[in-house]
């Protein structure tokens, strides 16, 4: 180990990097956030996976030089991931600001030299991920057009400075052919407890797939669905225009939201007092538990979030619940406690943190 | 994590269940989930990498492109089959035919219909090779036992090094 490094100063991130949590966007009770990312590569370089260290560092230097002419990222913060201790890289990942791959969280693929992220207001740029560049925009609620505008502006500005690899037939060239063409992945993080409780979720997810959408858990590729939070996104990137891909997501997600609302009405109508009892018990557990695993916390939070949506629990904001979703994760708790925690210490710290937040930010008035 | 029901296969679906006043998680394998009526959700690919490797491997095996290495990065079709990742943008030209087929399989189309892109004018002319770039490419060619490519790169490095500055 080299000399100990100071923890990441969270106040340095623009908006703490979590403005998308503020529940100000459309349909915020059901849709937590909207993200659009564009995969881009720079011509004249091997893709990151095949590049040597020197090439990756020159890539980062070239991007950095170009940014002075990219207004979308003026005043952005540059984080070199290889310079950050594991817990900080984990924290950035927990905030959905960097991918697992870029953060080097997989012990088999440690963080690579040249891995970096530029964080601006509502937009970010990942350098030397699987693709040289991953541009992303993140917005609160169901806000596809706004996210698209943000990332498109960044794309235009950056693409005018750095030569992207583009093919007359295949479009934007990417390391994995699953991203070629537009390189566009539009996704929403959506909470669907009504559909899960009414057991309608299977049909809905199957329908999504037929429409060309796919779903994943909280953390994208390969991650589990916990707490009834799903990430819905377009499955293909080639053969449809950027506008068509957006329209598809908007159309399908709007339909899913309607189905979720309908499921909630059915729950209240057919099982009102049973549901009410369960959801209050979920709240009670969060209020009084002394130890909470991540999965437990997410599941009870899901119940409380549903209760707030059904107006059974009042005096508790969606913003508070969104914050708990992010800040009750292990790297955040380690930051809060100022030290690396064991699993059982993490569970204790999580329960303590959740109790404090619920006590100070809402009484859940009956 | 094992399936809660059969305790045999890996759990792939995770449902929240409310039974006897408790919210519990139900972890099920594909089979047991199907028995409970959530079968269709599982045909959604959870691991795109696994999928693409399968698609790549399913493709007509040895083609004429197989033997050739990409002249820029030295990657071969064999490398692609092993990782599911291409080596550089030029690989798309080097393996154009089989890629067109694969893209059709993955996306239902191989033709980009979205936004067109023109590289900035200042870059329209290829930037001259730097010694750095060439040396990186040479090392990669040697690692991949692409000796013809390595010889060519070595010549270009020599030419650059002896060039009057
Ligand atoms: Zn089973
Ligand atoms: Zn190549």
TrEMBL record, chain A:
This is Phosphagen kinase C-terminal domain-containing protein. The keyword Cell membrane does not apply. GO terms for biological process: phosphocreatine biosynthetic process. InterPro entries: Arg_Kinase, ATP-guanido_PTrfase, ATP-guanido_PTrfase_cat, Gln_synth/guanido_kin_cat_dom. One of its GO terms (cellular component) is extracellular space. Residues 30-263 form the Phosphagen kinase C-terminal domain. Belongs to the ATP:guanido phosphotransferase family. PANTHER family: ARGININE KINASE 1-RELATED, ARGININE OR CREATINE KINASE. Keywords: ATP-binding, Kinase, Nucleotide-binding, Transferase. It holds the Pfam family ATP-gua_Ptrans. The keyword Glycosyltransferase does not apply. SUPFAM superfamilies: Glutamine synthetase/guanido kinase. ATP binds at residues 33-37, 96, 134, 185-189, 216-221. PROSITE patterns: PHOSPHAGEN_KINASE_C (PS51510). GO terms for molecular function: ATP binding; creatine kinase activity. It comes from the Bacteria.
Automatic annotation (TrEMBL), chain B:
GO terms for molecular function: cadmium ion binding; cobalt ion binding; copper ion binding; zinc ion binding. Keywords: DNA damage, SOS response. Residues 128-163 form the UVR domain. One of its GO terms (biological process) is stress response to cadmium ion. Transmembrane segments: none annotated. Pfam families: UVR. This is UVR domain-containing protein. It comes from Gemmatimonas phototrophica. PROSITE patterns: UVR (PS50151). The keyword DNA damage applies.
């Amino acid at each position: 180990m080299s000399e100990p490094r100071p923890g990441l100063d969270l106040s340095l991130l623009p908006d703490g990097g979590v403005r998308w949590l503020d529940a100000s966007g459309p349909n915020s009770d059901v849709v937590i956030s909207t993200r659009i990312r564009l995969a881009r590569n720079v011509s004249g370089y091997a893709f990151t996976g095949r590049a040597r260290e020197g090439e990756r560092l020159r890539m980062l230097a070239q991007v950095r030089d170009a940014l002075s002419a990219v207004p979308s990222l003026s005043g952005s913060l540059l984080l070199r991931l290889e310079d950050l201790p594991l817990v900080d890289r984990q924290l950035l990942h927990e905030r959905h600001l960097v991918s697992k791959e870029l953060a080097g969280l997989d012990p088999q693929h440690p963080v690579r030299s040249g891995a970096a992220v530029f964080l601006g207001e509502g937009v970010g740029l990942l350098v030397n991920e699987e693709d040289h560049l991953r541009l992303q925009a993140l917005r609160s609620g169901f806000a596809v057009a706004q996210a698209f505008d943000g990332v498109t502006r960044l794309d235009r500005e950056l693409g005018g400075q750095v030569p992207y690899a583009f093919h007359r037939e295949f479009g934007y060239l990417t390391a994995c052919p699953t991203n070629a063409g537009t390189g566009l992945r539009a996704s929403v993080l959506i909470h669907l407890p009504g559909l899960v409780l009414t057991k309608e979720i299977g049909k809905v997810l199957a329908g999504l797939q037929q429409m060309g959408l796919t779903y994943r858990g909280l953390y994208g590729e390969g991650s589990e669905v916990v707490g009834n939070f799903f990430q819905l996104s377009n499955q293909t990137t080639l053969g449809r225009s950027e506008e068509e891909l957006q329209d598809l997501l908007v159309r399908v997600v709007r339909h899913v939201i309607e189905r979720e609302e309908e499921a909630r009405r059915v729950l209240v109508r057919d099982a009102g007092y049973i549901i009410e009892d369960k959801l209050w018990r979920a709240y009670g557990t969060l209020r009084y538990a002394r130890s909470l695993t991540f999965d437990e916390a997410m599941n009870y939070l899901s119940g409380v979030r549903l209760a707030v949506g059904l107006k059974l629990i009042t005096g508790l904001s969606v913003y508070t619940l969104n914050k708990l979703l992010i800040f009750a994760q292990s790297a955040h708790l380690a930051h809060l406690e100022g030290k690396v925690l064991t699993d059982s210490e993490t569970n204790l710290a999580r329960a303590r943190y959740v109790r404090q937040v619920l006590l100070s930010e809402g009484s859940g008035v009956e | 994590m094992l399936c809660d029901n059969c305790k045999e296969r890996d759990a792939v679906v995770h449902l929240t269940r409310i039974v006897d006043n408790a919210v519990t998680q139900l972890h099920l394998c594909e089979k047991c989930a199907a028995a409970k009526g959530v079968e269709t959700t599982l045909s959604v690919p959870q691991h795109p990498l696994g999928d693409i490797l399968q698609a790549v491997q399913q493709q007509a095996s040895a083609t004429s492109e197989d033997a050739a290495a990409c002249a820029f990065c030295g990657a071969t079709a064999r490398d692609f089959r092993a990782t599911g990742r291409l080596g550089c943008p030029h690989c798309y030209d080097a393996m154009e035919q089989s890629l067109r087929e694969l893209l059709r399989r993955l996306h239902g189309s191989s033709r980009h219909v979205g936004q067109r892109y023109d590289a900035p004018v200042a870059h329209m002319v290829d930037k001259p090779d730097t010694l750095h770039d060439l040396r990186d490419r040479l090392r990669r060619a040697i690692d991949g036992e692409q000796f013809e490519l390595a010889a060519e790169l070595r010549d270009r490095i020599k030419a650059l090094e002896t060039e009057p500055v």
